[in-house]
Amino acid sequence: MIGKIAWKNIWRNKVRSAVVIIAIAIGLWAGMFASAFVVGMMNQKIDSVINLELSHFQVHHPSFQDEMLPKFVIPNSEEIIQKMNNNEAIKNTSPRVVAMPMINSANYSGMLKVTGIDPENEKRVTDLHEFVLEGKYFEGIKRNPILLSKKTAEKYKIKIRSKVVLTLQDKQGEITAGAFRVVGIYDSKNGMYDEMNAFVLAPDLQKLLDINHDVHEIAVLLNEHDLAESVATQYQEEFPNLEIKSWMDLASGMRFMVEAMDVYTFFIVGIILVALLFSIINTMLMAVLERVREIGMLMAVGMSKLRVFKMIMLETVFLCLIGGPLGLLLAWICIQYFGRYGIDLGGASYSDYGFTNLVYTQLDMMSYISVTLMVLGMAILAAIYPAVKAINLIPVEAIRKI
Amino acid sequence: MKKNYVIEAENLSKIYAGVVPVKAVDEVNLQIQDNEFTAIVGPSGSGKSTLLNMIGGLDRPTSGTIKVNDILLNGMTDNQLINFRLHHIGFVFQSFNLIPVLTAKENAEFIMLLQKVPLQQREKRVMSLLKEVGLDDKLDSRPSQLSGGQQQRVAVARALASKPDFVLADEPTANLDSKSAFNLLDIMARLNQEEGITFIFSTHDQRVIDRARRVITLEDGKIVSDEIR
Fold it and tell me: In this complex, how many residue pairs, one in chain A and one in chain B, have their CB atoms less than 8 Å apart?
């Protein structure tokens, strides 16, 4: 009976109930959509970091990352790679040669990070080959091919088959140079990465650097994303003379960014929930205050305080049970739609900071559940004050109220 | 031999605190027996509603004692008083008596639901009570679809549904036209005579006073006359 009265009570003022239902639905939608946007943006950044920039973890000579000198190669790299390739947790490895040469075109010169790769190996570790816009991924030019980004090509005013010269120091510290021809132009949509990186064949760079078959970096891709830190730690213990770091530690600021995004999401959802809280308190308080005499009468004829409390709480719960699924459905539709077609943020500013301009919303089931529970919990919390106000009415005074 | 009273008030006083304290009820001694049809009358501010509220356990006396069927109401907690009212007292208020979202039948049934009376018993009693008050053809009508008199008759049915020790009616005819008021009084008088239900009214209404078998007059919180007819 209490449930029946509560259900009927919410339809006494249809406009007011509609406002609360819409507030709950929008609150839920906004909370979920904001979370899905941030999660989507972060996951895309993490995907980019793992699948393009760093892989899950990397192996270096302990001094290489700081000094970037050609002499700091990984000793016994073939043996390490073989060992890693026998580990079931590891999907693939890509040995790399890394240098920081001056690059000169007919129009411009500057500095780039040039990575020497084995194209087939690299395909199994990064998505670089998928981003080639013009030319081919190391096909068509046999001698000293170089793959540049669209940004670099525009900056240096070079085209496919244009010649560029890389000038660098070899292992002995002698200045050496090599001419390379542009085999392909890629665009990863990560402006910051594209601006800095060019790729050549590993043997070409090894020859220039005079390091035989040695490499500076082994990029390792795992089968499971979550194992990055533990497998990296395991190999660090096995090879204490090398530096083995997971993507979280390699990408400066990435760990901070992931944590900052969590806090940012928490605040966004928090602000929405607080707005919802006051909206529900206000509405339910109005609903109680305009029924003072009726509530007084109910208590006078024998309705216990607990039942009055339950009635007011149930009214809010019913409003939530209508607004909640509406908001969930709305959020799900929007997240699915923008998860498929993306949200175009426009401009290049996000790309300059390593984020893509097209954000695909994503939200896992746990987040749907947790945001829903937070909104419902907040709504129920909001109903407590009006319900307490109702049970504190003194029947003899309440029934006399005009 | 000591008589069995339904209501027994002894030296009952109620003082409202304030800059100037107001003594609404002043040392009232009152006994009401079973089957009475009693009107408490007096001018506005004489203390009749306050007395009625204390008898009904809605208000607490400043001093004195009040017993209903030998059960002392003084000292009961709020929740105990609510439970006591649910099982022992029927109420008919001046206005705003019914739950607007429920039908006449659901309103009459409401107290029994709170008492957890089984469904069959509840259905039987509510149908018989609504028949008694002449509303068996308005079972599914909401209060807004009923006249003031019909609403008060539903309130009487609801007050009786719990099989209370007595019914307290605070100005039950105040908002009714003559025809509805007489109709309501007829029903209450019949229930009193045929089923022995005790009714206690607080009223100014001469129509109620004329039908009462006992009239207690209050002035300045004191009983100034107690007439049994």
Answer: 63
Nearest chain A Cα distance for residue B150, angstroms: 18
Stated as kind and residue range, the H or E segment containing A175 is strand A175-186
Query: Scanning every residue of chain A, which has its alpha carbon at the shortest distance from the alpha carbon of B99?
Result: A294
Cβ of residue A309 closer than 8 Å to a chain B Cβ:
no
A277/chain B closest Cα distance in angstroms: 27
Closest CA to B28 of B229, B220, B228: B220
For residues A224 and A168, is the Cβ–Cβ distance under 8 A? no
- CA distance to partner chain A, nearest, from residue B41 (Å): 19
Neighbours of A187 (CB within 10 A): 16
Q: What is the pLDDT of residues B153-191, one digit of tens each?
A: 898 889 888 888 899 998 888 878 888 888 888 888 888
β-strand pairing of A145-149 with A175-186: parallel
pLDDT the model gives residue A354 = 63
pLDDT tens across A53-100, in order?
888 999 999 999 888 899 999 998 999 999 998 999 999 999 999 999
Domains annotated on chain B, with CATH: 5-228 (3.40.50.300)
Residues of chain A scoring pLDDT < 50: none
B189-202 confidence digits (pLDDT tens): 888 888 888 999 89
Cβ of A302 within 8 Å of Cβ of B53? The answer is: no
Q: Does B82 touch chain A (CB under 8 A)?
A: yes
A238: number of CA atoms within 13 Å, CB side? 12
What is this structure's pTM? Answer: 0.73
- pLDDT score for A401: 60
Cα of first residue to Cα of last residue in chain A, in angstroms, is: 27
Q: Which of A1, A297, A307 is the closest to B97 by Cβ? A: A297
